[in-house]
Each structure stands twice: as structure tokens, then as C-alpha cells.
Amino acid sequence: MSLPQQTVALLEAARHLAVSLRADAILFITETDLEWGEVHEIIGDTRLLVAAEDPELNAILREREDLTVLDLDVGETSKQERISLALLEAVRSEQLRHGADVVVLYNGIEASGDAPEPVDSLSVLHLGEHLERLDYRDLRRLETQVPLDTLRAVVSLGLAIGREGREGHPVGTMFVVGDTRKVLSMCRPMNFNPFRGYSEAERNIKNRAVREQIKDIAQLEGAIVIRRDGVADAACMRIEAPSTSYKLSMGLGTRHAAAAAISSCTKAIAVVVSQSSGSVRLYQNGEMVLHIEPFDRPLIFGPVRLDNRGNGSRRVGPRVLREPIAEE
């Protein structure tokens, strides 16, 4: 069987984009089996990844030695989420790196499940923030009084802190979002409040400039308390929630315990950034409800050393530090 003319045209466009943009791969999400030898002839040396929405078709494609096939458990999801799941699987299985550029071919028009269609759409994606936004769909499932845009801003900030650290050092911190009056009644200040004296506009985390400033404040000990409208009220707060009716996984320390405790006795959402791994965990009603792993963690370079052995001095460094830090 030969390829449909529309598929040939899209494959040629995908190859041209992949070459001109120096993309890492072409991802082909298919609903039908194709003449894959012809597909390879069209795209040339460009790397090809294939994902099939139908499990039976996926099993058939896996038998081919000339294809790199991704497992795709789509369930009841939209077309865009299926693309995201395929890209997530490609990163998880180390077929693609974080930050890769990918040309995606797929069928963007929903058709009858009994009548699968050839590809009709092409997209170019950069696997940076795109993958991190995958987990935002889980925020919609949380039954909370905190608006989604506020939660998204806090989680985005937490991911940035976990991924970037500050001044070459990993940073762990905690945000407590919503039910502010009750939360503050269960806190005690550990230092001066860095938000005091500023207007609400200058404390709103939905503002990119404010989030950059909070990255510095996150290095201080204690929790950062944020109102449901996104305005930061206080920082350097010690959580003294009386509750012990919370669940905590083994290996998590005092910061996570405080987050679980405050979420169990208030209507707040606690967001914890792990210092050791950069992962972000959300706590609600005393339980962890969402765990997001950052896809990329910057290398931490140690200081340059001088090796004085021998007749002269030679420069050694920088060296990468990978010693684990206990989660708090």
C-alpha cells in the first residue's frame, strides 16, 4: 500500500522543518498502519518516533525492527493531551532529552473511532515548559477554594525554584496558599516579614517580577503564606499546626510534615519544594495530592581549586557536586 498524498506532503514538510530547525526527532502519532519503508524514504536520516493510539496497532508496530515505538495509554483524553503523554513517555524512556525540539505529526480532527484517519496536522514543540505544563491539568481536579490561576502561579514558581536553585545552591521552601486568616493563627514569625509595607500589586505572585523576588525570599527559613488571590502576606513563618491526623511518606522530613499538618486543619493547599531533588509536592486535607518531578536540574559547580602537586600549579575545576541532601 502506498501513503496517502496528504501524508506524503506532511512528511516532506516535517522533514524540511526538522532539518532547518535542527530538531531532535519527528514524532508520528498514528491511528493506522502505514508503509513505513516509504515513510523512512521521505524523512531521510531524521530520527523517527512512533506512537499508536490503539494498543493492538501499537503491538503490531513493536514487531518492526525499523521503528522506535512509544507506549501510549491514552484513555479518555483529548488530542492535545495525547501528544503531551507521548512526549512525556519519550522523555521518560530517554528517547528524547528535556529541551529537545520535536516535529509532531498527528490527526488533529476528531473522527469516528470506527474510521481511523491519516495524519492531517503538524506542530513544532520545544520540550521545556511544555512538559511541565502537563501536570497543570491535575490541578483542575483538586476540590479547593483556591483559584486555579493562583495555584498555577505557585506551582510554576515552585518548579522554577526546584529546577534553578539560587546562586548555584539547591533551595527548599514551602508555600501555604488560601485560608490565610486561619493559617496565620497557626504560625509564628521567625524573622522580619519581608512583604510588610509593600502594596498588594507589589506582592502578587501572578506578576513575573514578583516571582523573581520571591525566589530570593525562598532561601530564608520558614513558610511563605499566600492569599487565595495570589497576594503574598508573610514569609519566614514557623508552622505550628496542632493536627497529627495526616499521612506522610517515609523519607520526607519536617518541612513536608508541617505542610501536611497545616493542610489537614485548614482549607489551605501547601506546596513544598524539596531541597534535595527539586520535586514539588502539593498537600491537601493532610495528604499529598500531587507530586511533580522537575525534568531538568542544573548542575551545581564547586569552586575552582589549585592543585599544587608537582613542579607547578595547574587549574582544576569546576567540579560537579552531586552529594545528596536530606529532604526536609
Describe this structure in words.
This protein has 328 residues and is α/β, with parallel strands linked by helices. The protein has two domains: 5-127, Pyruvate kinase, C-terminal domain (Pyruvate Kinase, Chain: A, domain 1); 135-292, YojJ-like (1 (3-Layer(aba) Sandwich), CATH 3.40.1700.10. It is built from ten helices and 14 strands. It has helices at residues 5-20, 36-43, 55-62, 79-92, 129-132, 136-139, 148-164, 180-184, 208-217, 254-264, and strands at 25-30, 48-52, 68-70, 101-106, 121-126, 173-177, 187-189, 223-226, 232-239, 269-273, 280-284, 287-292, 305-307, 314-316. The strands form three sheets. It has a seven-stranded mixed β-sheet, with helices on both faces. Strand 8 and strand 9 form a beta hairpin. The longest helix has 17 residues, at 148-164. The radius of gyration is 24 Å and the shape is elongated. It starts with a helix and ends in a 12-residue tail after the last strand.
